[in-house]
Amino acid sequence: MPRHSTKNFVRLVNIFVKPYWARILLATGLMFLLTASTIPLPLIIKYLVDDVLPSHRKELLLVVFGMVFGAALLGRLVYLALRYVIIYTGEKVIFQIRSQFYRHLQRLSLSYFDHKQTGEIMSRVINDVYIIQHMLESGFITILTDLLTLVIVIGIMFHFNWRLALITITVLPLYAANHEVFVRRIRRTGRAIRRKIEEIVGSLEERISGVKVVKSFAKEEYESKSFIEKLKENYRLNMRLGILSSSLSSIAGVLSGFGAALVLWYGGRLVLEGVMTVGSLLAFYSYTSYVYGPLVRLVQINATIQWVSAAIDRIFETLDLQPTIKDMPNALELDKIQGEIRFEKVSFGYTPDTTVLHEIDLEVKPGMVVAIVGPSGAGKTTLISLIPRFYDVTSGTITIDGVDIRRIKQASLRKHIGIVPQETILFSGTIRENILYGRRKATEEEIIAAAKAANIHNFISSLPDGYDSIIGEKGTKLSVGQKQRISIARALLTNPKILILDDCTSALDSKTEAQLQETLRTLRKSRTTFVIAHRLSTIMDADLIVVLNEGRIIERGTHEELLDQKGFYSRLYYQQFKAELESEKGNVRTK
After folding, report:
1. What string of H, E and C letters represents the secondary structure of 171-233?
2. Closest Cα partner for 497 from 337, 373, 351?
3. Which structural domains are found in the chain, ordered by start?
4. Which of 162, 172, 159 lies closest to 294, judged by CA?
5. N or C: which end of the chain has fewer CB within 10 A?
């Protein structure tokens, strides 16, 4: 195991296993008992061959029977108790690992998720933790009992006959050499398999989520072939790992056979010379299986150890990541805000060598409605993502009521901001649970009021289960427009002082959009509202329209002021107006 892997293993033990030291101590004691119940068996064989059979005393056979059966019964009872303790402890440890891992994921900033595949994250929290669980609950017993057995049995062998004992352990360096030959290849192949599994899980998650796109382009066969190619590569890697592991254990088995043959050859000579009894030779030979058997198992489990060490490394690779967005020491808790927002010379880039926004200066008074427009890629969504501090500015400052948002606790800042994203995200469960997501203790009247404000109450009431209707995974049982309106109701329920609408009405029909726009006009009177819209007809009454292009504010003003400037906004507006007019004429002709 590499040095950094050993370090991470020690960390895993200290953080997650150490709290259960009492049960680990109990398990260790039970392992001693389990080992003690099996080690005397060769000695009983010696007693039978050398003492009982030559004496012809049949009553002693009952003693032998009692010793063998008693040892077997004790061993099984101890093993049962040991398994219970190990499984209980293992499940507790795994529960803590998964819990801490998930809590840590929630603390990480959005930038982490921007650069990681969902499948890779899922693989770490599920597959990698399962590998550790398997090792704790099965491999742990095997390794410790085998190591304990080796130490005790080799001591007994030297007590029997030191020459035979030396012959037995001469094979051990060959085991070590065999291990060194294969272990690095096994480790490399195991890591390649883990990466491939992450790729497969990520691809599977994406394709299942985008199954409508796949079917709409009739790409089922293409996707099947693409997925099968990934499976084939995983198959080849697993075959390679299987061959390496089998070769390692097979050579170990041959070495065991060689050692056992040496014991019989030399031990037989000692019996013929009268130096050793037949019973002693049989007992000693039985003990060789107590040495070589554990050695073979330890070699076989080495592949699992490599998987576990890689899994532990990946777990800590994530746990060691620190959020890029952190609360400052003594960060402020804001109970109430007015909603004044100011951008002062704000520049931002997702990476150090790129700049998406350039020296943005913008002042927004409380209660203002600010529309942000511009071509795709202009930086509109990036700009509003800086307000709830999903990302930190590269330079400049953003203030709310004169306070730099970096001096405000993130949770406190975000509770005053309601966001309706362009891509609607709902969770599996009921409509009620989704609306309540931002404010769990809201009353039934408040839930209904938010739904009415989003023009979704009548639809919900028409469902057999009303607000308790199951919406399916990601809201698959709802239309795009219905999902967006539920998302709007969810944001409105928190009654935020700052409302951010990221092109959230794009999927609504004209009638519903008009109704919702009227509702939003009423709601936004008491709050500062940012609206991103591609349809300029929806933001004509905004107090301020900001035109972004290539990350810079190129125009600002009211709708009428911008039209009078006859600049970028004016051209964009008339292009849309002309397109809508032609579309309406086309609809008239088809009637």
Report:
1. CHHHHHHHHHHHHHHHHHHHHHHHHHHHHHHHHHHHHHHCHHHHHHCCCHHHHHHHHHHHHHH
2. 337
3. 3-319 (1.20.1560.10), 341-565 (3.40.50.300)
4. 172
5. C
Question: Is pLDDT of 204 > 90?
Answer: no
Radius of gyration of the chain (CA): 35
Nearest to 118 by CA among 211, 200, 221, 32: 200
Task: List the structure tokens of 561.
Answer: 């002021």
- Cβ atoms of 419 and 502 within 8 Å: the answer is yes
| Sheet with strand 369-373: strands edge to edge | 417-420, 498-502, 528-532, 369-373, 544-549, 552-557
CB 528 within 8 A of CB 367: yes
Chain position carrying tokens 């700009």: 383
Which position has the token pair 């410790």? 144
Closest CA to 349 of 105, 106, 111: 111
3-class DSSP state of 347: strand
Nearest to 372 by CA among 342, 526, 382: 382
The pair of three-digit structure tokens given for residue 106, joined into one six-digit string? 């929630």
pLDDT 10s digits, 214-266? 766 677 788 888 888 888 898 999 899 889 888 888 888 888 888 888 888 99
3-state secondary structure string, 145-159?
HHHHHHHHHHHHHHH
Sheet containing 357-364: order of strands: 357-364, 341-348, 395-400, 403-404
Q: What is the pLDDT of residues 38-57, one digit of tens each?
A: 888 888 888 888 888 888 88
Measure Cα distances from 222 to 200, 227, 229 in Å.
Answer: 16, 9, 11
280-299: average pLDDT: 83
**Which amino acid would we find at residue 485?**
R
Which residues pair with residue 395 across a beta bridge? 347
On whether the CB atoms of residues 550 and 378 are closer than 8 A, the answer is: yes
| Per-residue pLDDT at 589 exceeds 50 | no
Quick one: DSSP state of residue 430? B
Q: Can you tell me the distance from the alpha carbon of 366 to that of 519, in angstroms, rounded to the nearest whole number?
A: 19
φ and ψ at 101, to 5 degrees?
Answer: -60, -45
**Inter-residue long-range contacts of 7-13, CB under 8 Å, 24+ positions, other chains counted:** 8/309, 8/312, 8/313, 8/315, 8/316, 9/309, 9/312, 11/316, 12/97, 12/132, 12/312, 12/315, 12/316
> Residue 582 and residue 569: Cα distance in Å, rounded?
20
Relative to beta strand 544-549, strand 552-557 is antiparallel
Asked if residue 160 lies in contact with residue 153, where contact means CB atoms within 8 angstroms, the answer is: no
**Which neighbouring-strand residues pair with 546?**
372, 556
Strand 528-532 versus strand 498-502 pairing type: parallel
Q: Calculate the alpha carbon distances from 132 to 4, 17, 18, 84, 333 in Å.
A: 17, 12, 15, 17, 40
Task: Quick: pLDDT tens for 93-145.
Answer: 889 998 999 899 888 888 888 777 777 788 788 888 888 888 887 777 778 88
* Angstrom distance (rounded) from CA 438 to CA 388: 15
